[in-house]
Hints:
There is one protein chain. About 75% of the residues lie in helices and about 0% in strands. By secondary structure, it is mainly α. α5 (about 85-125) crosses α16 (about 345-365) and α8 packs parallel to α12. It is globular, with a radius of gyration of 21 Å. The mean pLDDT is about 95. Bound molecules: tryptophan (TRP).
Amino acid sequence: MANNRGQWGSRLGFVLAASGSAVGLGNLWKFPYLSWKNDGGAFVIAYIFAVLLLGLPIMMAEILIGKKAQESPVPAFEKLGGKAWSLVGWLGVAAGAVILAYYTVIAGWSLRSFFQCVLWSVEGYTAPGPNDFGVFLGNGALQIGLTFVFTILTSVIVYRGIGGGIERASKIMMPVLYLILLYLVGTALLMPGRDEALRHLFVPHFSKMTTTTALEAMGQAFFSMSLGLGAMITYGSYMKKDESVFRSSLWVLIADTSVAILAAIAMFSIIHSVPSLVQKMEANELNAVGMLFVTLPALFYTTMPGGVVVGPLFYVLVAFAALTSTISLGEVVASLLIDRKGWSRSKATLVSASAVFGGSVLCALSLGAVEPLSTIELFAGKQGVLSNLDHLAANWMLPLGGLGITIFVGWFLGKKACQEELGLQKATAAFTAWLWIVRVLAPLVIFIMLAAILSGKDFS
Length: 460
Ligand code: TRP
């Protein structure tokens, strides 16, 4: 079946698609918010450590599995490790479906912010009421509608396959995303908040570097680099045999981390240009979680010179970033049906997208629209279907999946097989370092994360 699975047209194709998976709401919404919450500098440093020390090696491990097996996660584990290991694949696909269900709902918000900005640009800015966003969240029909639009966009691309769908879409959306981001950063750096923003983001207070900072940085690295559920196994399975796993992974890391940091620079510069806002955020009167969808849209029109143009463009960027991530999650689920059941891509896409959309509807209605859905509490302190699914995926499924992946590659796949797949003639020092990170350090850190979660820490 391997020959009709599809393949990336070039290394750039893989790098752009995998970067597209990695760059998403995690970079634009979660990273700036977590940085703000955790002293900026201290978090940024911890994050850079986390992506280099753990993110990169684990990403290489995932890509290596996919490239070697040339199959999506479930059949890949089965082929390389036998039936029992395919459980890790199943866990991954389940995590992919869960994340896709709620992620699509949040992705839909980018469409709303886009239309809101266009309207403000055309008709002039009118300040939204204090509970404007809450009303939007509680509008079930609108939430479902936006989610539906995003589901269709995702499915159309997945339906068109690897080269003609995902690769082509990424080749258009990723460069556009970068151009808009650079323009935004350039404009934001002309604002008066620049110096304070850069200090906030890059000058760490080491006293603020707590275990929580380190753990949150690691959890964020996992999510942001799309690790732990086999997305990179899936994308790696469409890679040509002679391509370098290390170099491709490094490019994805650079793309992912640079978008997160550039977005934070821009957002911090804009926010720091309004001292009263900073005070409110520091006094916790204004929650940093709302930075991307609540605080920022208004600032484009009240504070930022040229915001009339940048505002709508920025939410195109957010939508593109989210879309290249949802297609990677959609591909994980669809490819299971293609590889395992031998279904055509169109049937696999239609069936998986419909099933996941069912879950999305529950999430969309859980933001205030429908009573038991928005109040249900499966995990302590998590209200509503969406929050609970986020908690389930980020705190349990991704770390457990990551554990399975690292232990499998480190201890069961064999040193020779890894070396061969990484294109090495002999075991270099770097290879040995990588292997021991995957064997010992990464599982150990994931254990510590799971222990922290058990004792009440929350990565969602
Ligand atoms: N990395 C994406 C983001 O930062 C989200 C994402 C896409 C993801 N595919 C994934 C997260 C696979 C975990 C696993 O928004």
